[in-house]
Give the backbone structure.
Amino acid sequence: MIPWVQLDSAKTPDGGQELRLKRRGSEFSIMLGTNELMNSRLSGSEEALAKLSCQRIAGHRQPRILIGGLGMGFTLRAALAELGNDAGIVVAELVPAVVAWARGAMAEVFGDCLDDPRVTVQESDVSQLIRSEPAAWDAILLDVDNGPQGIVHKSNDALYSLQGLGAARTALKPGGVLAVWSQGPDSGFTRRLKQAGFVVEEVNTRANGKRGARHVIWIATNGPRP
């Protein structure tokens, strides 16, 4: 068995915890304590986040997409594969080290996706971008922390609050989509999406195609305002 080797570490935004980048052969893992946040061999549900979202906005011209969380780039690469050359994607990543890992130690995982002319990476809080411009996005994809019940950065909770969901709806164009990845189900979050005025679809998916852990993706469409 090839042993895991730690390549680097970085503090979480609040400074209270540590992210660790590890490698075993061609496999990469990002850990928080004993919790594995992501693994380069398990990409199915993150790819589904992008595919489901892009399918819902297939008729939009020059779509603008905001992705919260760079991770290992699974969602980004899947979105690029689904979207045409007229699309624009902004990826917001709060931890600068994650961007550095993407361009450094994990460059083989990311390939050339960060150099795609449709892509802009901003080292910033996705909630700030959401609140910066109304009716700006055709889709907002959130793969931040472990979903509505986060473990990495407590302020992420504000994204998933009723107020945060209201801000996301304001930031979406009519018929736009808010898509949220989660490690597991959360009935309270489903209720909040509906309270915020979204038309909600909850999709169960697997971490690796038809195998692996069961994850949840919410596809919330920005319906007409009353």
